[in-house]
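FAQ

Q: What does a record look like?
A: Structure on top, sequence underneath. For example:
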């Protein structure tokens, strides 16, 4: 009798072990790939991203109707035509570089997340697929081309997109995807007023780039509040380029007569203790120049991980 129990227990243990060995493992999430935005005026948008920001204009391997403005071999802003009926929304998706797009697709599918049947291959041999997060935001996972090269962008104001952010209604709901499923790690949180949480930053599990929840006090659930303006939404839906010194970068922009359009009146120190300067593309998407490292003590919480670097 004991031998039967032992055999049954051994079989169960072997079955569990075999299942563990065959379960897909999450591949590395290395950092930010890109932010994809809409334009209502392609010429003005090109002037902004190419002439002011200094990114290199390139064809879009994912979408022949789009354009890429690249700051490095694997990071860029993707600009797409404004679809009919977009309202004030100018954000299409955020995107993250991964070690294997197919492995990530299989991992999410095994966890019960809705995924496409296959990855898509770009014209540059990159691979990618797209899902939606709990609030309906589109998220891409990109495996860059093995032949990716640094762009011809000598005048770029920076070459590292260190974070992206977008409007979030429920931190708890979004955490089920980014924290629990993908393994993003806490970095910093804060707010404009003491005791009020406005921003939650968390880094990718295998790098130091981060995602910033821009928490809104509007109606719960997904969607853009009816009272929100184009500018207010553009403040929330944004990207950040890291620099050694925001003040020095501002001087370069000023000296080169590259401060046309909408931007802050001056540089400042953010609540996280880092220098910053905000510029806005012609459709209101914010680009935040930010020092890699804090020069003052941050409010609200300490940093809990290492900063990104050049």
């Amino acid at each position: 009798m004991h031998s039967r129990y032992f055999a049954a227990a051994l079989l169960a243990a072997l079955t569990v072990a075999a299942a563990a060995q065959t379960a897909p493992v999450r591949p590395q999430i290395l950092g930010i790939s890109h932010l994809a935005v809409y334009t209502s005026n392609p010429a003005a948008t090109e002037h902004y991203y190419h002439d002011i920001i200094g990114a290199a204009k390139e064809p879009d391997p994912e979408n022949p109707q789009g354009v890429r403005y690249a700051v490095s071999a694997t990071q860029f802003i993707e600009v797409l035509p404004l679809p009919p009926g977009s309202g004030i929304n100018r954000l299409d998706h955020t995107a993250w570089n991964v070690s294997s797009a197919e492995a990530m697709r299989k991992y999410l599918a095994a966890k019960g997340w809705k995924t496409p049947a296959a990855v898509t291959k770009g014209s540059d041999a990159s691979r990618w697929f797209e899902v939606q997060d709990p609030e309906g935001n589109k998220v891409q996972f990109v495996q860059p081309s093995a032949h990716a090269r640094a762009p011809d962008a000598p005048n770029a104001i920076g070459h590292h997109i260190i974070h992206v952010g977008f409007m979030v209604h429920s931190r708890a709901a979004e955490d089920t995807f980014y924290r629990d499923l993908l393994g993003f790690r806490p970095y910093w949180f804060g707010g404009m007023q003491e005791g009020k949480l406005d921003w939650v930053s968390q880094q990718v599990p295998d790098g130091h780039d981060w995602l910033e929840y821009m928490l809104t006090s509007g109606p719960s659930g997904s969607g853009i509040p009816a009272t929100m303006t184009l500018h207010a939404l553009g403040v929330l839906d944004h990207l950040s380029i890291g620099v050694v010194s925001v003040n020095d970068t501002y001087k370069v922009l000023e000296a080169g007569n590259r401060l046309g359009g909408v931007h802050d009146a001056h540089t400042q120190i953010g609540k996280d203790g880092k220098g910053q300067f905000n510029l806005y593309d012609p459709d209101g998407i914010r680009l935040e120049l930010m020092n890699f490292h804090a020069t003052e003590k941050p409010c609200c919480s300490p940093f809990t991980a290492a900063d990104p670097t050049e």
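Q: Is there anything notable about this one?
A: Helices lie at 2-22, 42-52, 101-110, 171-178, 230-236, 246-255.
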